[in-house]
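Q: What residues go here?
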């Protein structure tokens, strides 16, 4: 990124130097392994395949836990955001909720295979960690307007997402190459025995992703606390609570008059639900459809993360050049196509045309259907990053500058208030039909409705 220590022409404001910006970007690097290792490619598929009684019930249970965490995040995000705007500082909130992420993720080590007694506390730990990482992200996002001029917000957001994807890739390589081994061969993806004597039979290589995620966050979030300038303190917390709640009520009362902002928040509520559900259940769906083990799912995750890195980087530049709305709509169109196509891919068919099924124990992605799933997954990875990065850029362009944390709270609210609906529908439909494909089909509706609503938003 270019040096940021310059005066923004739009508001004659002096912005901090490169070290502060790069350190802020590393929050995405620090947090991304939670989404890569826990919610998508390693722990969630492991839970569905080996901890839960069967993949379908595992997908349903994971969906219910995701929904519960999402509801808690939705209810509290705007309130805490408003209080943070009134109090001024962001870092104490990031530290507090980051601690919840570390505690919850580390506790997920208890998820032993075949032990139904660990399922309730394991899902509770997952919910606590999810609440922690999402709230920490709300307050980290709210720091963006102080770091770069408005015309560089898109590049900053896209670079953050791209950097996060790189962190996710490296964490996956670490897990697959050195920690998680095939239970039959006892070897990792690189052919090594697992480090630290991790037992492949009890899937310690999969379970270690929880503590590893917590340690990774602590190490790589530190530069942000050390070098990125925080908002100055405005008023004591007790005073800030009353002031923040008053301003939140005022913002909610004014929101219907801000038609573009209201439409965007509504659209974000719909399409974010679809995207989060797609990422949360993509690995579980692959495990159930193709019988992929941790190494195959993790390798799939690395490929997707590489595609996502380039997608987010390019999306940030397109954001500044074309505007965030166009980037969001283009990304959603790609996601809609990919989801529809995935529903036509089975273990032994593509677009309902029979193909040879994968050979058990054969090379990675040797089956034609597996390769098709990987290609479609790359489209999802490449489009998901720009969608999320451009969304936070569009919010910054639409929201009042003096209430940015509050509106990021509303942004998180709209991203979470119905976020239980997607996982809940997937879980319920999967449970009723005993079909993972039927559960995933609901995602088509989310992207179609999100596109229709976003089309009416004016930047």
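A:
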């Amino acid at each position: 990124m270019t040096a940021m220590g310059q005066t923004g022409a739009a508001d004659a404001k002096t912005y901090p130097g490169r070290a502060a910006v790069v350190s802020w970007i590393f929050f995405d690097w620090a947090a991304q392994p939670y989404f890569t290792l826990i919610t998508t490619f390693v722990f969630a598929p492991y839970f569905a395949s080996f901890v839960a009684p069967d993949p379908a019930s595992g997908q349903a249970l994971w969906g219910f836990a995701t929904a519960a965490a999402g509801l808690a995040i939705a209810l509290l995000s705007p309130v805490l955001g408003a209080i943070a705007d009134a109090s001024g500082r962001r870092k104490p909130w990031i530290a507090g909720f980051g601690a919840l992420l570390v505690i919850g993720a580390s506790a997920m080590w208890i998820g032993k295979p075949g032990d139904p007694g660990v399922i309730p506390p394991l899902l509770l730990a997952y919910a606590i960690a999810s609440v922690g990482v999402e709230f920490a992200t709300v307050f980290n996002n709210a720091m963006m307007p102080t770091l770069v001029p408005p015309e560089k917000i898109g590049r900053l957001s896209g670079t953050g997402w791209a950097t996060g994807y790189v962190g996710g890739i490296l964490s996956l390589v670490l897990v697959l190459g050195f920690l998680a081994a095939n239970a039959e061969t006892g070897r990792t993806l690189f052919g090594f025995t697992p480090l630290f004597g991790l037992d492949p039979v009890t899937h310690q290589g999969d379970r270690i992703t929880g503590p590893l995620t917590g340690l990774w966050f602590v190490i790589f979030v530190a530069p942000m606390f050390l070098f990125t300038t925080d908002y100055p303190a405005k008023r004591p917390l007790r005073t800030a609570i009353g002031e923040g709640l008053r301003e939140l009520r005022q913002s909610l009362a004014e929101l219907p008059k801000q038609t573009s902002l209201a439409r965007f928040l509504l659209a974000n509520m719909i399409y974010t639900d679809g995207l989060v559900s797609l990422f949360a259940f993509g690995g579980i769906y692959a495990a159930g459809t193709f019988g992929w083990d941790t190494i195959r799912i993790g390798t799939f995750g690395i490929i997707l993360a590489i595609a996502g890195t380039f997608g987010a980087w390019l999306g940030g530049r397109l954001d500044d050049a074309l505007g965030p709305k166009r980037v969001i709509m283009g990304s959603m169109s790609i996601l809609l196509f990919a989801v529809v196509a995935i529903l036509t891919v089975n273990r032994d068919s593509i677009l309902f045309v029979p193909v040879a099924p994968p050979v058990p124990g054969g090379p990675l992605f040797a089956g034609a259907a597996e390769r098709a799933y990987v290609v479609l997954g790359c489209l999802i990875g490449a489009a998901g990053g720009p969608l999320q990065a451009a969304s936070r850029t569009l919010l910054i362009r639409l929201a009042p500058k003096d209430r940015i944390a509050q509106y990021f709270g509303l942004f998180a609210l709209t991203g979470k208030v119905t976020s239980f609906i997607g996982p809940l529908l997937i879980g319920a439909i999967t449970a009723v039909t005993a079909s993972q494909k039927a559960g995933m089909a609901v995602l088509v509706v989310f992207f179609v409705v999100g596109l229709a609503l976003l089309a009416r938003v004016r930047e």
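A: Context that may help when evaluating the design: The radius of gyration is 21 Å. The chain is about 70% helix and 0% strand.
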